[in-house]
Amino acid sequence: MTSRLEPYRVSAYNTSKQSENKIHDDAVARRFGFSGGLVPGVDVLAYMLHLPVAKWGRAFLERGLIEARFLKPVYDGETANVMAADSDGALSIEVESRGELCATGTASLPPSPPSFSLHDFTEVAAVAERKPVNVNSYEVGQWLGTLPRDWGGEAAKEYLDDIRERDEIYAREGLGHPALLQRVMNKVLVDNAILGPWIHVGSRMQLLTAAKTGDELTARAKVTGNYEKKGHRFVELDALVVANGSTPLAHCRHIAIYQPREQTVA
After folding, report:
1. What is the pLDDT of residues 120-140, one digit of tens each?
2. What is the pLDDT of residue 263?
3. Dihedral sign computed on CA atoms, order 153, 156, 161, 164
4. The pTM is what?
5. What is the pLDDT of residue 264?
6. Could you tell me if 80 and 93 are in contact, meaning their C-beta atoms sit under 8 angstroms apart?
7. Which of 99, 215, 221, 256 stands the most exposed, by the fewest C-beta atoms within 10 Å?
8. Quick one: which of 135, 123, 101 has its CA closest to 259?
9. At what angle do helices 179-190 and 41-56 cross, to 10 degrees?
């Protein structure tokens, strides 16, 4: 049987207007065929995460599974409508904005989190000196690391405000929003090369335990794909996001266009 959840509506906010990734800058994004700077995919995923957390609560933050593909941009100030249908305990999720389908995904709650060993994911440091990205920056089979990052105190509250998150579970129970783990996945790319404009296009995240506010987060990531498609260069990562050097928080697969094809302007 299929039932629909109450839609979740968000006034989208571009959290990365000032970031190094200029795909979030209006003028640069237009060179690539967009109407303006893109709201980051990790934040669109944050909007999508609201519904499975509303349905399953802390259990989802401890062992939930979500997959998402970002099809079209969500723009700053536009309304993002997040809709979900529940079929046999799994959610099919869609994000619409401006009358267009912008993202699709699924979420489910496994009976228990799968087991992942830290020893299966090689710990390396981020590169000592970043160089401009090229086809050799992310070699298939290469292990990549990140600089440690935490979102504690005011930074954690600010992120919840930025993504317009209204669920009180994070502040009430001192938990980090799972979209922050996806920010760490983006850091894998940024901490190991100097990128031009680039686009996060898809993620699969199996949560293993709930992140806590202020956890020091790193990723141990293996490059599993590096290829060209329709003029874009893609990279795929398989990674474990780790708290405080010892606790696996999530197993993630991450897809990004690290060199998008620039549009020819008439």
Report:
1. 999 999 999 999 999 999 999
2. 52
3. negative
4. 0.94
5. 43
6. no
7. 99
8. 135
9. 150
| Comparison of pLDDT for 180 and 17, the residue scoring more | 180
Two tokens, residue 88: 């046999």
Beta strands in 71-181 (DSSP E): 79-87, 90-97, 100-108, 143-144, 149-150
User: Any idea how long the chain is?
Assistant: 266
pLDDT at 27: 86
Cα separation of 191 and 183, whole Å? Answer: 12
**Structural contact between residues 230 and 207, judged by C-beta atoms closer than 8 angstroms:** no
The predicted-structure confidence for 209-238, as pLDDT tens digits, reads as follows: 999 999 999 999 999 999 999 999 999 999
- Indicate if the pLDDT at residue 186 is higher than 70: yes
Q: How many helices (H) and strands (E) does the chain have?
A: 6, 12
> Tokens 């983006």 identify what position?
186
Tell me the CB-side half-sphere exposure of residue 244, using CA atoms within 13 A: 6
Tokens of residue 53, six digits:
């957390």
79: which 2 tokens? Answer: 């309304």
CB 16 within 8 A of CB 24: yes
Phi, then psi, of 59 in degrees rounded to 5: -55, -40
The mean of the pLDDT values for the chain is 93
- Could you identify the residue written with the tokens 């979740």? 8
pLDDT, tens digit, 9 for 90 and up, residues 39-97: 999 999 999 999 999 999 999 999 999 999 999 999 999 999 999 999 988 999 999 99
Torsion of CA 41, 46, 51, 55, to 10 degrees: 130
Residues facing residue 81 across a β-bridge: 9, 96
Q: How many CA atoms lie within 13 A of 67 on its CB side?
A: 6
